[in-house]
Amino acid sequence: MSTLILALAAGAVIGLALGALGGGGSVLAVPALIYLLGFSPAGATTASLVIVTLTSVTALVAHARDGNVRRRTGLLFAAAGIGPAMLGGALAGRIPAVVLTASFAVVAGVAALRMLRSRPAVEGAVTVRPGRAAVVGAGLGAVTGVLGVGGGFLAVPALVSVLGLRMRNAVGTSLLVITVNSLAALTIRAGTVEELDLAVVGPFVGAAILGAWDGKRLSVKVSGHTLQRIFALVLLAVAAFMLIDAVL
Predict the structure, then answer these.
(1) For residue 102, which of 79, 188, 231, 246 is within the disulfide window of CB 3.0 to 4.6 Å?
(2) CA 214, CA 222: separation in Å to the nearest integer?
(3) 131-169 CB burial, b ≥16 within 10 A, e <16
(4) Are 56 and 155 in contact (CB under 8 A)?
(5) Which band of pLDDT confidence, cut at 50, 70 and 90, is reported for residue 124?
(6) How far, in Å, CA of 146 to CA of 85, rounded?
(7) What is the 3-state secondary structure of the chain?
(8) How high is the pLDDT of residue 47?
């Protein structure tokens, strides 16, 4: 199968995940870039930030129109994560590829298990504690910088389980967090972005953006609890595959 077709297929799936689930794009993009398209772990994390940033903006606009973005919560998360994201981005290049891959898998697996164990959020008003949001946001920012992910696959579980947002609000709000954190991490990695293969990344981004719109429509048709479980199971499968590959 040609590289172009693989890039288009992977991009469509990742866009669908971002649009429907508010996260999971980068946690799927990184292994796709490594195992399907031949990127190095470092190159894959940088490319995934570019892809996920552009796709997240598209999905964010769609969710904001439906009132699913909790701006105050999202901005608290994002503001707290900017500094750690930039610091993590500076440190990422010094981490061995095997450690980077294994760490990525462990973090994804923990997030997946937490979501599978959490109960569906109840309907109604949610009181957001600024201190708790800031602490969790700082942690997400650090993970974004080091692992090259937008943070949505961690932001969604945190917004649902820690802060008590409904799934649909968590999906929309996480896209705001992803966009800001990814841009902060890319600021540190600006020099390596020029080295990316645009012939692969370009079609990948285009397919992801189109997939994000389809994902948004899917999120309206599927219940929040079902989306949460799908999200967690996909994360768990990807985490297991990457951990086995890193160890063996």
Answers:
(1) 246
(2) 13
(3) eebeebbbbbbbbbbbbbbbbbbbbbbbbbbebbbbbbb
(4) no
(5) very low
(6) 7
(7) CCHHHHHHHHHHHHHHHHHHHCCCHHHHHHHHHHHHCCCCHHHHHHHHHHHHHHHHHHHHHHHHHCCCCCHHHHHHHHHHHHHHHHHHHHHHCCCCHHHHHHHHHHHHHHHHHHHHHCCCCCCCCCCCCHHHHHHHHHHHHHHHHHHCCCCHHHHHHHHHHHCCCCHHHHHHHHHHHHHHHHHHHHHHCHHHHCCCCHHHHHHHHHHHHHHHHHHHHHHHHCCHHHHHHHHHHHHHHHHHHHHHHHHC
(8) 86
Residue 67 corresponds to which tokens in the numbers above? 């009132």
Determine the distance from the C-alpha atom of residue 157 to the mean position of all C-alpha atoms in its chain, rounded to a whole number: 11
Interval 28-59: pLDDT, tens:
788 888 888 988 877 888 888 888 788 888 88
- Show Cβ contacts of residue 246 under 8 Å, excluding neighbours closer than 6 positions: 98, 101, 102, 105
- What is the rounded CA–CA span in Å between residue 40 and residue 212? 26
Per residue in 144-182, pLDDT tens? Answer: 777 766 666 677 777 877 777 887 788 888 888 888 878
Residue with tokens 């012939």: 199
